[in-house]
Amino acid sequence: AAAIFNSAFGSFLGIVITPLLLLLFLGSSSSVPFTSIFSQLFMTVVVPLIIGQIVRRYIKDWLERKKPPFGAISSCVLLMIIYTTFCDTFANPNIDLDKFSLIIIVFIIFSLQMSFMFLTFLFSTRNNSTFTPADTVAIVFCSTHKSLTLGIPMLKIVFAGYEHLSLISVPLLIYHPAQILLGSLLVPTIKSWMVSRQKALKLTRQPKAPVKV
């Protein structure tokens, strides 16, 4: 539930943050049709979620018996979205991105990813924090990750008709694979930390046996 809220809230927050960032970094104003954007995002994000929850109530028992391979289907669809988006972006003749700039973008994105994950880890493990080790793992991954499945439609809605849409999609195209790569590399380390931390907390909470005199 927290991950779904984080994803949806981050997408809607981006509608407000994006024009402000454009104004800050480019020094130019931008107008965003909020009504159109919210209605389109509602139809592409909220409505399918509501329909899915309604349908699930009626086919839940059937799904538990048959257990369709939704995990594999989801992975294939996500891979197809990444592939087609890459093709659409770099096949655009208007995109003007040299190799050096691309390398710089990759370096910046990996640095941002590591910085965000490190900061969220420090925040969730501070002394007065009430988060469990499992909560910390969820926070580190959920709060720093964004998906192309929401990012690309949002870019197309916010920047509809913009001739350089392919160019501004490049950071997101790199960000998504980067988080998958970093997540895969960090899973063993974070899992080991979580297990050891849980064992340590369990030992500290065990009541001490009375000492006989």
Automatic annotation (TrEMBL):
InterPro entries: Na+/solute_symporter_sf, Put_Na-Bile_cotransptr. This is NTCP7 protein. PANTHER family: SODIUM_BILE ACID COTRANSPORTER 7 (PTHR18640:SF5), SOLUTE CARRIER FAMILY 10 MEMBER 7 (PTHR18640). It comes from the Eukaryota. Signal peptide: none annotated. The lineage of its organism: Eukaryota, Metazoa, Chordata, Craniata, Vertebrata. Belongs to the bile acid:sodium symporter (BASS) (TC 2.A.28) family. Keywords: Membrane, Transmembrane, Transmembrane helix. The gene is Slc10a7.
